[in-house]
TrEMBL record:
Main location: membrane
Presence of keyword Transmembrane: yes
The entry's keywords: Membrane, Transmembrane, Transmembrane helix
Protein's UniProt name: Calcium:proton antiporter
Origin superkingdom: Bacteria
Source organism (scientific name): Achromobacter denitrificans (Alcaligenes denitrificans)
Membrane topology value: Multi-pass membrane protein
Tagged with keyword Transmembrane: yes
Subcellular location: Membrane
Membrane-spanning intervals of the chain: 39-57, 69-90, 102-125, 137-159, 171-191, 203-220, 261-282, 288-310, 331-353, 359-381, 388-406
Amino acid sequence: MRHSSPPATATPSSSRDASPGSAQPPAPSLRPQRVPISTWLKLGWAWLVVIAFSLYGGDWLAEPLAPTAALAAFGALFFTIIAASFGVVHEADHLAHKLGEPYGTLILTLSIVSIEVILIASVLLGPGEFPTIGRDSIFAVMMIIANLVMGLCLVAGGLKHGEQEFNAQGARAYLSMIVLLAGTALVLPNYLSGAGEFTGPQAATIATITGVLYAVFLLLQMRGERRLYIQPPPGAMTVAPARAPRPDADANPAEAGGASLWLSSALLLGMIVPIVLLAHHLAIVIDYGVAAANAPVAVGGVLIAIIVFTPESITAVKAALNNEMQRAINLCLGAFVSTVGLTVPAVLVIGLLTDKQVIMGISPMEIVLAALTLLLSMLSFNGQRTSVMQGAMHLALFATYGFLLFNA
């Protein structure tokens, strides 16, 4: 998910850089942006699959579901939703560049997390009983983002550029939020009256506290504490307040034309709606696959995490390869903060409104893995520079999680 964090650097517009005596750059074109052919292909394919499943999905996925039909349906749905997710990230990135902060990052965050909430809600409200799908998805996101993707970023960036610098204050802020939100949402329920559940009043209170805290964090991140999340000067671990760019420094007013904004917004919605319409069919196939393979129920959460965060993960690894470690940290650690800050309230509210059972408490083994992940992340980002060895340790912890997922 492109997370709700400002870009590592702010590039002033060419018109502000021009000296008084220099020739002014030509006025930007007012024509709407040219949409890449790949965007039209993704959009067209997504809606063709929606039409196909709307007309014939009931027959294709009718009981008893054949293994070949289930596998073919899963392949088509998985590929389509992944492609649409890439399209969502692409268009949200366009809007972020045109609108600047804080609106751009808000669009990026809501676009990605909305996909996760849609998929979780589809499974939670589907024909089967999966009361743990919310906690399984959130825990899978933690292990995938904080260990697999972060480990790949540290290894890939370290092998190409050596030790890479980052903003230690911002990393500590992310980790502090992760400790508090993850502990409250995933560990605390095990020590309350229910078996890993919140009561109605508890769920409403935790959802409210989590949502408000995340909103405060988001506001400070985009405004008063924006400097904590940008790349520091070489040799420094922090960014002085005077160096922080203005909140609207990334905006390019000349590009924020009405037609261009409407086009990007329409394409963004055009990519999200197919995901919404196909999520129910994917939930049916996931239910069948988990039961037929006698796989752990947590596998459903892992699949959702992979679908949602694959585009974001690729972007983070590319940032590390481009020697933009701060951006990679913003994407990885920020992705999990957004996941907990927005998904937990959404799942708890869905449970309250539909009277569905929602189990949030993770198992003792998962508590140990979560504690190891948080402790390792704190040690990895406690200094000023990253290293390949730190990345190798994160990857080893993810491999342990993957093994125990099927052999606990």
